[in-house]
Every structure is written in C-alpha cells, then in structure tokens.
Amino acid sequence: MKLEKKHLFFILTLFLVGVMARYVFKDINLDLDLLRESLENVPLVVIENLEFERTISSDLWRVRVPMAMRRNDIVEVQSVDVLRTLADGKEWYFIGARGFYSEAAESADLAGLLGTLETDARVLNLESPYLSWSRSEDIFLFPKGLTIYDAEFLLEASLASLDAPGVIALNEGAVVRWKKIIK
C-alpha cells in the first residue's frame, strides 16, 4: 500500500508537532519546578524602618529594625537595635548585625552583638559573636563566648548566660584582666 505525499507530509507534521510538544512541556515543567523553588526562597513580607515598643514585666523594650523579612514563621533582620529600660530606670542596650526570630519557638538569635548594661556601680560594655534567647527559659545565652569590660577590667568567657534580673553566669569559667588605674 502506497502512502500519498499528502498523507506522508501529514504524518511527519504530526510527528514533529509531537516531538516539539514533548520538549515544550518538558521545558515548562522545568521552569515550573524552578519557579516553585524560587518562590520558596522569596520572603512573604518585607518591612523597612520598623520600630516598636513593648512592656514586659515592668521593663520597656524599644526595638528598631531597618529591614525585616518574614519567611514562614521565621523573621530575619539585617540589623537590630534593642533598648531595654528597666523598671528602676537603668538601661541595657544591644546592637546586632543580623538576627532571627522564630514565632513558633518564641526564640531570637543575634549575631555580631555589641551592648551596654547599666548597673548600680557602673556601665558595662559587652561583645559576643552570638546571642540566643527563648521566652520559655527567659535567659540570654552566649554559646560562642562573651566579653565584658569597662575602664577597670576585661572579662572573657567561652560560654555565659544572662538572666532577666541581670545575673551573669559564667558556665565554663572566665579570664579577668584588671587594668591599672592611676589617680
């Protein structure tokens, strides 16, 4: 049985359309997968110049964040300034280069931390590469070390914690260097 040229041309056209459709749908599937993966990494909400105040246990907390991005239940900030004014008027001030807050765990982490703690006797400066806090424990944990200093001394600890009243626990000991004061 001989195929006419019209039929042969029609069959070849259908074959070519089928091959092209296969590659087009394959590309569409790849693009959809790529798009789906990209959308998972895009923040759901981006807020700039965020400032808020909250009173917790008679202490006033003021937080400033130049930019915050929310993905699922995690809020990521590029910089954060936290001022805690205690009920007695003393202030704690923290600056973090980068931070994360988990709504589900009610916890926060700050990297590149600098701060000051005002006590009855003096104002202490502190530095730490990392700070972790959770509402359930209500302590500030410094798992990568903590340095505290003022004009008279320098204290360095490899692991420390700070509770809400301001008691610092040096969990693995510390090194203290006293500076000579000339009067």
CATH architecture of the largest domain: Sandwich
Low-pLDDT regions = none
The number of helical elements comes to 1
Q: What count of structural domains?
A: 2
Order of helices and strands: HEEEEEEEEEEEEE
CATH superfamily of the largest domain: Lipopolysaccharide (LPS) transport protein A like domain
Fraction of residues in H or I helices: 10-25%
Task: Could you tell me the CATH topology label of the largest domain.
Answer: lipopolysaccharide transport protein A fold
CA gyration radius, whole angstroms: 29 Å
CATH class of the largest domain: Mainly Beta
Q: What is the approximate shape?
A: elongated
SS class: alpha+beta
Mean pLDDT: 83
Write down how many β-strands occur, each being a DSSP E stretch of 2 or more residues.
Answer: 13
Main beta sheet, described? 13 strands, antiparallel
Task: Walk me through this protein's architecture.
- It is a single chain.
- By secondary structure, the chain is of the alpha+beta class.
- It folds into 2 domains: 1-42; 45-178, lipopolysaccharide transport protein A fold.
- It contains 1 helix and 13 strands.
- It is elongated, with a radius of gyration of 29 Å.
- The termini are far apart.
- The longest helix is centred in the first third of the chain and has 37 residues, at 5-41.
- Strands 1, 2, 3, 4, 5, 6, 7, 8, 9, 10, 11, 12 and 13 form a 13-stranded antiparallel beta sheet that branches.
- Strand 4 and strand 5 form a beta hairpin.
- The chain has one helix at 5-41, and strands spanning 45-56, 59-71, 74-77, 80-85, 91-102, 107-118, 123-134, 139-142, 146-149, 153-157, 160-163, 168-170, 174-178.
- The mean pLDDT is 83.
